[in-house]
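Example (one chain per record):
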Amino acid sequence: MFEKISKIFEDTGVFFVFLGNLFKYWFKRPLRWHLYLYEIELLGVNSVPVILLAGLAIGMIFALQSVVLLQPFQAEIGTGAAVAVALAQELAPIITTLMLIAKNGSAMAAELGTMRVTEQIDALESMSIDPIHYLVVPRVVASILVFPVLTMLANLVGSLGSFFISTTLYGIDSASYTDYMFNVLKTKDIVIGLIKSVVMGFMVSTISCFHGLHVSQGAKGVGEGATKAVVTSSVAILVADYILTTVMRPIFFGR
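Predicted structure:
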């Protein structure tokens, strides 16, 4: 047990050293713009179909549940507002991040882990190319940029899914639905979700790259590194979501 606790503290220390090196190379030249554009396409553009399906599904499901809960109070008109606020502040950032952890976080860890065990990273270091500058920084920057965009996409399709369910299955007036939704939904609700998505994008990319670069030798080590990246990232973003909500609620809502 004490060995496990000691290993946790040791890994935490190594991770913070990794973060320090990451920030050291953040603006170091050359920036290699082609790597940034490639990662944006890989992490962002290629993830659009997954986010569209996930956002649409969560919006429709939440609308179904909300209408059932609000019907006894004859408050079905509030379905759109409830779904929109929940999506903006919580559901869209969380669902988007979890989908990207499964798709991109595991891929980052596996790719970097494979490069580590096949000594490609050692080859980079032998050519005086720092792997953090060359491999990690583009992935982290791309994640910070694409996570908010994909979160907004999930917001949009989730709201459309909720609108479709509410107006077609339950006969809620479309004009009343949208008017009430836009009266309740505020810009700060969207800003909160975007801030969360930026933080989560940074966390997922750094945790995944860290576990990828620090795998043990062999194929088993690569698999374990990818698994650790997914599990650690998933737990970390849920904890971060609670902390960010606790911190930002007094700032944006005064309570």
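Caption: The mean pLDDT is 89.
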